Amino acid sequence: MTRSINAQALAARYVAVWNETDAERRRTGIADLWVPDGEHYVGERAVLGYEALEARVRGSHEKNVRDDGNRFRAAANARLLHDVVTFTWEMLPADSDTVLATGLEVLTVNAEGRILVDYQFVPA
Asked: Is the pTM of this model over 0.85?
């Protein structure tokens, strides 16, 4: 049952994938977090499956982490209700606690805590 899922731990694992510098570890993290046909929606973008998820995460990582020198962290507000996990993420400079941007994640998870559908709301 999803009640045994630690929502905050899932949120931490989620943001860790977006921060991961090693492509193989990032790929493994994606496979551990999402089901094979997992979905991710942000703005007008719709992503389906591991290959597309990997491209999406890699693109965000390259832009925000590698090139701009930022990092992501999960705020300490993750919650689980039935099969939905919500939490806020923050983007900060690698060497500071100044929050540059925040977003909201709404994750639908299966009984094992793997992501079925990921809705990402980012600042407009």
From this structure: yes
Into how many domains does the chain fold?
1
How many other C-beta atoms can be found within 10 angstroms of the C-beta atom of residue 11?
24
In the predicted structure, residue 2 carries a pLDDT above the cut 60: no
Three-class DSSP category at 44: coil
Q: Can you give the pLDDT at residue 124? A: 58
What number is the average pLDDT over the span 43-68? 96
DSSP assignment, residue 49? S
For the CA atoms of 104, 85, 8, 51, the dihedral, rounded to the nearest 10 degrees, stands at -80
- The C-alpha angle with vertex 97 and arms to 91 and 103, in degrees rounded to 5, equals 25
What is the radius of gyration, based on Cα positions, of the chain?
Answer: 14
| CA dihedral (68, 104, 59, 20) positive or negative | positive
Domain with residue 19: its CATH number is: 3.10.450.50
